[in-house]
Amino acid sequence: MNVNLDKSYLTNFKHGKIINSLYNFDIRWVNPDSINIPYELDPKEVKRSKQAIKDNRRQSPVFVLHDIGVVAGIHNLQAYSELKYDRIPIIYGKLK
After folding, report:
1. H/E run at residue 39
2. In a domain, 1, yes or no
3. Helices (H), strands (E): how many in the chain?
4. What is the CATH number of the domain that holds 73?
């Protein structure tokens, strides 16, 4: 799995503008099952995410904020979990 850490690249994603609101951020490799998903997700969206992952299409990154939790990419997170990935990159940061 390739991960592009360039800030200008990351801001092109749907929720990428979050990057500009962060005090700092880094990429962490985590087991997707280790991140709590606090509510039921739309199964159709998760299915679309799974298919995109299988097809190796561009995926929005999973954003996790300190003291808040997942703020973007939650359908991708569930899809990675259902596809039995044991490590995925997430963007972890703290708000300014």
Report:
1. none
2. no
3. 3, 4
4. 3.90.1530.10
Which residue range(s) make up the domain with 69? 7-95
Instruction: Report the number of distinct structural domains present in the chain.
Output: 1
pTM of the model: 0.76
* HSE, side-chain direction, 13 A CA sphere, residue 9: 7
* Residue length of the chain: 96
How many CB atoms are closer than 10 A to CB 89?
A: 16
pLDDT tens per residue across all 96 residues of the chain: 555 555 565 666 666 666 667 677 788 899 999 998 888 999 999 999 999 998 887 667 788 888 788 878 889 999 999 999 999 988 888 877
Looking at the domain assignment, is residue 68 inside a domain? yes
Q: Rounded to an integer, what distance in angstroms lies between the CA atom of residue 92 and that of residue 37?
A: 16
